[in-house]
Design goal:
Blueprint: H1 2-6, E1 11-12, H2 14-24, H3 26-46, E2 52-63, E3 92-104, H4 111-177, H5 184-218, E4 223-224, H6 247-267, E5 273-285, E6 304-314, H7 320-388, H8 394-429, H9 433-436
Parallel strand pairs: 1-4
Antiparallel strand pairs: 2-3, 3-5, 5-6
Helix pairs in contact: 2-4, 3-4, 4-5, 4-6, 4-8, 6-7, 7-8
Length: about 450
Amino acid sequence: MALCAAAGLHAQSLRETIDAALANYPSIRVSDEQVKAAAAGVTLARTAWLPKVDGLAQLNRATKNNVYGLLLPQSTLPNISGPPNPVNDMGSVWGTAVGFLVSWEPYDFGQRTANLNVAEALRRRAQTGVERTRFEVAALAADAYLTTVAAQQTVRAAEAQVKRSRQIGEIIRALAKAELRPGADVSRNDADLASAEIQVVQATATVATARATLLQLTGKDVQVAPANLLEPPTDSPVPTVDLAKSPYAMEQEAGIAEAEARRRVIERAYFPKINLQAASYARGTGVSAIGATPGGANGLGPNIFNYAFGLTVTFPLMDIHSIRARREIAEHQKLAENARYDQLLADINAHVRKAKDLLDTARRVAELTPRQLEAARQAEAQAGARYKAGLGTLIEVADAQRLLTQSEIDASLARLNVWRAMLQVAAAAGDLKPFLDQVH
């Protein structure tokens, strides 16, 4: 504690640590950006109701040779318009084209709405993913906080053992110097002291590891402020668990909604496409209808103008088989998501029951450890008194001190284990509020 104060570290409560983790942990920012991307996808889906306007401008220099005959649709040979040229003339002329085409789908049989619903479902799933990630980070931060407090309590108990070993060592040396005790007792005490100091080093390393986890989650070095975590929590009833409100269940519900939305899109894929179209365009050419080529700048500007209005209906006649297969795939995907939801609820329910059993066990253990600690203190005091009076051995003193150290660790950890079990119940249920409400 003194080292942390000297280093200028600010002691943080459990709530402050969780808030810092939620503000700084990168995975939450990743999820937030995914939500923003999904929201942009909703905006993109809404643009499907807007008319499509395409513009074109072209300038070319090409030969004018044209022939009778059909050319199947392809994407390699350029198109040429006009009557066939009786002479194969390799001279070239200028050609220009400029125009606009406006297309609008006035009625789509619900296709655009279905696509919008998919985008909304994706946004909802991303949002529930953020809530699930925030919950996981909060639970991890709370667990790391409790682990740090537990490690610090182990350090304090180990340091107390070192202090007791040194105190009894002074007595042993005085008695050995007066030849009232054998010199072997000094060596035995030195070994016990070294063992206690090793335990302090190991416990300190555990504290450093726990604080490194907090640093990873919060982005800064955290000094814990245990508050009432060192005392057993008030005996409050375990809150009722609503499995459907778990962030994991809500995320899976969003997955079911997404699968259903995708299925509805496929159901509307076999409807015809209706497009209202309007075009205005102009072309220029450097050759006349009889094949004459005036030359010069002829064709560099449009000289023939046209406009058109129309209605185009397209229907995917042969797509019925592929659409049926896609619809069957989507149906099975939806059923799989439903099965995952049922499995998830069963897993959550099992985790909650296990956590409640652990909480009951932790409370019973916490009720017994004070008796264990008091008895260990009395045994240590009696062993020390018997040794000073020459009625006991150093082995009895060392055993009593180790028992006291372990009892001190057990007592402090038993109280913390009640808090940890309460955290596990809250984490399994998907709601940390009942746990945090009891932490002051």
